[in-house]
Amino acid sequence: MAKSKKEIISIQSVSKIYNLGETVVKALDNVSLSIYDNDYISIMGPSGSGKSTLMNIIGCLDVPTKGKYKFKDELISEMDDNQLANIRNEKIGFVFQTFNLLPKLNAMQNVEVPLIYSSLGRKERIERAEEALHIVGLQDRMTHKPNELSGGQRQRVAIARALVNKPSIILADEPTGNLDSKSGNEILKFFAKLHKDGNTIIMVTHEESVAKLSKRRIDIFDGKIARDE
Amino acid sequence: MEKLLEMNNFFKNIIIGLFSVRSNLTRVILTASGLTIGIFTVSIVSAAVSSIDKEFAKSMDYYGNDKVYVGTWPWSFDFDWWKYRNRPKIEESSLEYITQYSEYITDVSIKKNTWTRATYGNKASWVQLNGVYPSYQDMLSGTKIENGRFFSQNEWDLQRRVIIVGGTVRDGFFQGKDPIGKKIRLNNVTFEIIGELKKQGIGMVPGGTLDNLVIMPSTTFERILTRWGFDELVLQTSPEDIPLAKEEVGMIMRVARKIPPGDDDNFAVNSADAYMEQFNTMKNAIAGMGFLVTGISLVVSAIGIMNVMFVSVRERTREIGLRKAMGATNFNILTQFLSEAVAIAIIGGSVGIALIRLTVFGLASFPIPNFNGATLPISFDLLLVFYTFTVCVFIGVLAGLIPARTAANLNPIDALRDE
Ligand SMILES: Nc1ncnc2c1ncn2[C@@H]1O[C@H](COP(=O)(O)OP(=O)(O)OP(=O)(O)O)[C@@H](O)[C@H]1O
Ligand SMILES: [Mg+2]
């Protein structure tokens, strides 16, 4: 860890405040954080502590109420909707707890979704989607619809979809939350491999054992970072 | 290049929209049927109106835009028989007053009208008979002598049994062969055909066709045909003088008939333009009804499409959230849902076009018997297809705009969290 790492994300004094009339919820309270290239971070904390909020801000799905967010050299906190959509498309891969595959599309078409919103031609889209499904070991399930796949396989399709645009960072909010322990372990092995191949991964989890597999651990409590090591 | 890529993106979203249509086909077809009805009615109505127009234009030619007709009754659709039944018949003698005193009338003829049975061998047909002056040759309107000749002054003086026949006689009696010189019987009297008129086709005149016509000298007519009929005065003027000519003829007629000042006319001065006005009122009523029905069905179907689109947005909230998380812009989502709405509209319109096509086909194979083999001239053309598509795109965009905007403006996090 002594090696000097390249910073890709810099979050400075970011707050997310929900004003609900009488009460004010500080989902994130003055959080500062740096994320480096090839980090493998797990975020832990009790329910409602602000983990998803932080992930959504990192993933450019949400904008902070206060503070500065820089992605490489771009100031995300100042961007408009279209610019954010572009960053999400090119720089970020999402993996969700509930997979979020489109039920009417087959594995291949699901993986293609992010590419549709990039400027790639059809041929290259197909090549990239096939490649991504290869990486997750589903090359023989390409024409299967989500309801013809197991939970673990569905999550692998979702990971292939997150990888397909070669993002700078992969964000996974409780990726094993809906899986049995065997499939969950497979997915985690997978993340380890992706990390080894040079990817940057941030994962939210509730399980100590899962968090142990990562290289850096951040604990959040009441919208504040309680521990980062 | 940048622009080209943007276009490419645009079409990809349209394709996504089209695919969602396919997955809800039943719902789509039900919704689209409103548009089907709309498109169908509008084209049937406009075809009907335009074909009535065409027929009517021919009838206008038949009466001529440069002629004034003096008759017992006005040309009117709301004809009040009780008011007119005691009017005296038209007298040929009035023509002398008109030729003598009128400034605007350049030529005159009597036109005696009746209908009679015409026979040739064992063939028989009802024809319209006109008894006229030799001058009528130059006053024929909408047609002309196409074959043979008109009767001469001499033939008129001598009450010769010579006739000029309309276009249907050739086919009806002579299997399409030249009828000149042939003899047919009218009211059991033999006549020789000396001339043939150019065909005019179907028109909105008594009997439906303008060609079922036989013209002869009015002197012969008077001598031989005593059955009921009515007389008219046909007066030649020029189109721009019609209003003045009508006024003047009216005054001369009052003098000729010695009608005291203050009394009503007991004759009618007619011309095609007045007829035209009557006709336009009727045509506008038909068109108005048709367009009302169409308008209502278009509005109803627009509301239907809007409703289906709202349901679609609701059902696919998570999909929208996911697509946004994957990098779809608001505009991408807007395009996707707008093209879905337009596709629904176009499906409705296409079914409408197919129905019209079938109707045209059906009508073509069932000629209307009264009209001598002619069909109701509804036409099917590319312009119709073009208009339909324009209307469908318009309705689709209109109906889809609000739901599509709702979809486009969804917050991705809330949308993803949707159950
Ligand atoms: N749209 C919102 N409006 C109001 N409050 C919100 C909204 N989204 C989140 N919050 C609040 O912000 C706080 C943090 O929520 P967040 O979803 O980040 O928690 P979390 O750590 O991911 O919890 P969990 O482990 O249950 O997923 C919570 O108190 C939550 O109620
Ligand atoms: Mg959460």
Descriptive notes:
The complex is a heterodimer of chains A (about 230) and B (about 425). With about 230 residues, chain A is of the alpha/beta class. Chain A is about 35% helix and about 30% strand. Chain A has a six-stranded mixed β-sheet with strand order 6-7-8-3-9-10, sandwiched between helices. In chain A, a hairpin with a 2-residue loop joins β1 and β2. With about 425 residues, chain B is an alpha+beta fold. Chain B has two domains: about 200 residues, no CATH class; about 210 residues, no CATH class. In chain B, strands 2-3-8-5-7-6 form a six-stranded mixed β-barrel. The longest helix of chain B is centred in the C-terminal third of the chain and has 44 residues. The structure holds adenosine-5'-triphosphate (ATP) and magnesium ion.
| Neighbour order of strands in the largest sheet of chain A | 6-7-8-3-9-10
Work out the helicity level of chain A.
25-40%
Distance between the termini of chain B: 41 Å
Shape of chain A: globular
How many domains of chain B, as an integer?
Answer: 2
Topology, number of strands of chain B: 10
Number of strand segments of chain A? 10
Report on the biggest sheet of chain A: 6 strands, mixed
- How much β-strand is present in the residues of chain B? 15-25%
Rounded mean pLDDT of chain A is 91
Low-confidence sequence ranges of chain A: none
Small molecules in complex? adenosine-5'-triphosphate, magnesium ion
